[in-house]
Amino acid sequence: MLTLTSYDPAKNFLPIGDVAVSTDEEIIEKVVLARNAQKEWRNIGIERRIELLREVYNALFERKEEIGTIATREMGFPKKQQSDFDLGDGFNYFNWYLDNAKKILTPEVTFESEVELHTVFYEPIGVAAIIQPWNFPFCQWSWSVVPNLVVGNTVVFKHSEECPLTGKLIEEIIQSTNLPKGVFNEVYGGAEVGQSLVEQDINLVCFTGSVKSGQKVYEAASRKFVKAILELGGSAPCIVCEDVDMDEIAPIIYVQRFTNNGQICDGLKRLIVHESRFDELVRAIKDIIEEKKVGDPLLEETEFGPLSAKRQLDLLNEQVEDAVMKGATVITGGKRVENLDGAYYYPTLLTNVTPNMRVWNEEVFGPVLPVMSYKTEEEALSNANDTSFGLGGYIYSRDIERAERIASKLETGMVSINGINYVCPFNPFGGVKSSGFGREHGKFGLHDLTQLKLVVRNK
Ligand code: NAD
Question: What is the residue extent of each domain of the chain?
Answer without folding.
Answer: 3-232, 236-417
